[in-house]
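testing teh design pipeline on a random one, pls ignore if ur not involved
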């Protein structure tokens, strides 16, 4: 992590912590759940070494960035607004964007709402899916999977937090970060999020105890409510984004997903990605990479390959 600097920037009514390294064209790295700027540590070093300015914020509600108290302070407009304000604060007219998980969702909407600010996008795990004109997203998940789908379980304010509080934070984060079952994540109320508190988890080679300790130190301070509120705004986002129904993403895109990623096993998603639907919604989609034997936290599991994928794409522009 040598040479990565940290500061706080006032954006969109909150104070946002950002990590930075390097000089040159800016690459904005946007993390997912339950993560932090730290998830991009390897890519920041790699891109800075290749002549880019890498900037990775802790998103609203995470890490050392402010966490507003209201659930409705976490809509997609707040999240995109924070990043546009960050670009303004850093005097950046246009940047390369890189997103993963929730960060990918935010990056899609950054490109949807402000394509003038993004030169090109590398997105991971979550493909762009168009807004369904008649069906709210959480209702769709409930219809497909029932109440045990993790996103459905996250909806009730305070409920998931109470379950998380019964589990050691480090163990909880290990469970999330090492999850690699290629299937939707279903958690019954009886079993709970933590399962047995005595579970021993052997960390994979790409995740160290030091890494887990860093995440743990930040989530013990901030709690999980900020990140969970992103999920709690899914139906509200659906209502607010009605004017953008049918709008395409008009930015050059490379998309990367692991074949063991739970998102790649949502019913219908592989057909959407590979049989024309994705390309129809994202007409400047240039590459789709499916990495074999790789789970959800792809940028940490295969750091050097992901750094190369990012560099090989953005150097064209």
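output:
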């Amino acid at each position: 992590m040598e040479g990565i600097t940290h500061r706080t920037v006032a954006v969109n009514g909150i104070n946002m912590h950002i990590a930075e390294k390097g000089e040159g064209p800016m690459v904005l790295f946007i993390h997912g759940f339950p993560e932090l700027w730290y998830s991009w540590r390897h890519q920041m070093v790699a891109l800075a070494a290749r002549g880019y300015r890498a900037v990775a914020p802790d998103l609203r509600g995470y890490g050392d960035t402010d966490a507003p108290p209201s659930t409705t302070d976490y809509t997609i407009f707040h999240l995109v607004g924070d990043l546009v304000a960050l670009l303004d604060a850093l005097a950046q007219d246009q940047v390369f964007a890189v997103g993963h998980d929730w960060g990918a969702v935010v990056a899609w909407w950054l490109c949807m709402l402000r394509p003038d600010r993004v030169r090109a996008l590398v997105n991971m795990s979550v493909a762009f899916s168009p807004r369904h004109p008649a069906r709210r997203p959480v209702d769709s998940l409930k219809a497909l999977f029932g109440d045990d789908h993790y996103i459905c379980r996250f909806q009730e304010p305070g409920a998931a937090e109470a379950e998380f509080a019964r589990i050691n934070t480090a163990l909880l984060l290990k469970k999330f970060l090492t999850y690699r079952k290629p299937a939707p994540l279903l958690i019954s109320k009886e079993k709970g999020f933590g399962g047995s508190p005595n579970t021993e988890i052997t960390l994979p080679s790409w995740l160290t105890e030091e890494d887990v300790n860093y995440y743990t130190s930040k989530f013990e301070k901030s709690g999980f409510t900020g990140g969970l509120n992103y999920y709690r705004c899914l139906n509200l986002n659906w209502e607010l984004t009605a004017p953008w129904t049918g709008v395409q993403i008009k930015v050059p895109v490379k998309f990367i997903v692991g074949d063991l990623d739970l998102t790649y096993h949502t019913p219908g998603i592989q057909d959407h990605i590979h049989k024309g639907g994705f390309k129809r919604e994202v007409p400047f989609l240039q590459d789709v990479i499916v990495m074999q034997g790789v789970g959800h936290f792809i940028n940490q599991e295969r750091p050097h390959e992901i750094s190369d994928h990012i560099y090989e794409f953005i150097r064209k522009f």
